[in-house]
Amino acid sequence: MFKLSYTKLVFGSFLVYILFALTPQKSFGDTSPEKIQIGKSKSRALWTKANVKVGTKTPAVILIPGSGPNGPEEMMPAKLTEDGKPHSLFQQISEPFVGQNFNVLALGKPGIEFFSRWDDKGWFDLKALFYDQNLYKKTSWSALIDNLAAGIAFLKKQPTVDSNRIYILGHSEGTQIASDYAKRDSSIAGYILLGYSGQNIKKILEWQMVQRPMDHFIETDIDPKGRGYVTKADAKSWPSPILLDDAEFVWPWKENSDQLSHADIEKYLRESTKIDSILQKCKDSAFYGAVCDRSDFYSETANINAPIYIFTGKLDLQTPVSEAIALKDACDKAGKKDCYLNIIPDVGHGFSAPRGPRRHPLADLTVGPVNDKTISELNILASKLKESSSR
After folding, report:
1. Percent of the chain with pLDDT strictly greater than 70
2. Is the pLDDT at 27 greater than 90, yes or no?
3. Overall fold of domain 6-199+296-389
4. Between the CA of residue 306 and those of 98, 339, 377, what are the distances in Å?
5. Pairing of strands 339-344, 308-313
6. Which of 56, 215, 312, 349 is in Cβ range 3.0-4.6 Å of 318 for a Cys bridge?
7. Four-CA torsion 333, 343, 380, 306, nearest 10 degrees
8. Range 198-232 burial, b when 16+ CB lie within 10 A, else e
9. pTM as predicted
């Protein structure tokens, strides 16, 4: 996924993962969302107002997307999904909350237009992706936090919203935006974190591009006995080129040798992905510069003065399950009782299973559609939050 390909350049060269939204759909559940604009940047958003009697107020949830140029749909192209069809993550994730009569606001990033179409290769059509491309390019990390603040301000003004029961749901990069926002607003009722990472962007990128192929391909499939090297006979069942999360891997065999050490392969990965150059771009970028190599912040998230609901896929290889466990450990260390971890089996970062028939967690990685188990767990959470708000 981290080769500098068309996909990579469009959706951010140094991003944790590209959480596009999934299929364009006309409605969340049985309620059609309204297309609106939020804040000074006029960020696109999809607003689903709770269907209640005049004067009645219910909880609200605001959805914050992951890395890359995501609109409020968080669209996922067919090429990256388990079933080979385009899907909208935020449509699916919204449905359990709409079903419990929450007010739901799905918020896109500044500069990104409502989704309208794919190009002839099945990726986002750049001519339709932006309403203001320069605004998107100039957006900083703090601007995304401001964008979330504008969304919260909108919700607090709505007559159907219980302003004491506003929840933030972040996915991937959106979990970090949510965690940082908590420092400025103590009124949020709870945080729902899907695909959380408490590491900085630099560490995540280096792991994804260099260490992840070692941990989840070389050491698991090619050299499971831990000899520390790979032979041509070992690699016979995995001929080059191999796509590992959209990154092309080619065996770097040396002349007159049928053996590669793990160190040889790791050196190849560093050179072929140009990781050092990418990490420097991360530090220099207007968007990630302030957070590229900041300190890990599990303890900061754990100290949020509101309930935290962590969801992660057991097979997540963008923000691995160890990140969610580290946050839960930080909660336990801080004595935080209202911190809940839900590890969904057999799914990855988009809460979907690897693509069949092989279903390799890395080589067949998918991002969507959200599986039934995850939807069921979100339904349980939405019901619980709705019940607690009515007491």
Report:
1. 91
2. no
3. Rossmann fold (3.40.50)
4. 22, 9, 20
5. parallel
6. 349
7. 30
8. bbbbbbbbbbbbbebbbebbbbeebbeeeeeebee
9. 0.92
Task: Name the helix (H) or strand (E) containing 245.
Answer: none
Helix (H, G, I), strand (E, B) or coil at 247: strand
> With 60 as the cut, is the pLDDT of residue 353 above it?
yes
- Closest CA relative to residue 303, chosen from 390, 197, 182: 182
Question: 75-76 and 87-88: which strand pairing?
Answer: antiparallel
Cβ–Cβ contacts within 10 Å for residue 387, how many?
Answer: 10
Mean model confidence pLDDT for the chain: 91
Round to whole Å and give the CA distance between 193 and 206.
23
Q: Using CA atoms, how far apart are residues 244 and 269, in angstroms rounded to an integer?
A: 12
What is the DSSP track for 122-181? SSB-HHHHBS-HHHHHH--HHHHHHHHHHHHHHHHT-TTEEEEEEEEEEETHHHHHHHHH
Coil, strand or helix: which one is 308? strand
Longest CA–CA span in the chain (Å) reads 79
| Alpha-carbon span 381 to 375, nearest angstrom | 10
30 or 265, which is more confident: 265
Beta strands in the chain (DSSP E): 34-38, 43-48, 58-64, 75-76, 87-88, 103-107, 161-171, 190-194, 229-231, 242-244, 247-249, 259-261, 308-313, 339-344
CA distance 33 to 200: 34
Mean pLDDT calculated for residue range 7-19? 34
- Is domain 205-279 given the CATH code 1.10.238 in the classification? yes
Closest CA to 24 of 125, 104, 134, 97: 125
Alpha-carbon distances, residue 131 vs 71, 215, 262 (angstroms): 11, 40, 46
- Nearest CA to 292 among 144, 110, 141? 141
pLDDT in tens, 50-105: 999 999 999 999 999 999 999 999 999 999 999 999 999 999 999 999 999 999 99
Q: Which amino acid is at 214?
A: M
Residue spans of the domains in the chain: they are 6-199+296-389, 205-279
> Are 177 and 154 in contact, with CB atoms under 8 Å apart?
no
Q: Of all residues in the chain, what percent carry a pLDDT higher than 90? A: 89
